[in-house]
Amino acid sequence: MDKLVDGTPFYKRLCFNLSSITLVVLLLYAGQAILVPFFFAVLLATLLLPFTIFLEKRGLHRLLAIVFSLSFSFIIIGSIIYFLVTQTANFFDDLPTIHARLDTLSDVIQKWVRETFTITIRKQDQIVNDLKMNTGTGMLGATFVTMTQLISYLVLLPVYAFLILYYRNLIKKFLVNTFRDGREDEVKKILQEAQSVSQRYIAGLLIELTIVFGLNAIGFWFLGIKYVLFLALLSALLNLIPYIGMLVANILCMLITLISSDVMRISDIIWVGMILLLVQFIDNNFLMPLVVGSKVRINSLVTIVGVLVGGALFGVPGMFLCIPGLAVLKVIFDRVKGLRPYGILLGDLKPARKVV
Question: Domain residues of the chain, as ranges?
Answer without folding.
Answer: 35-346
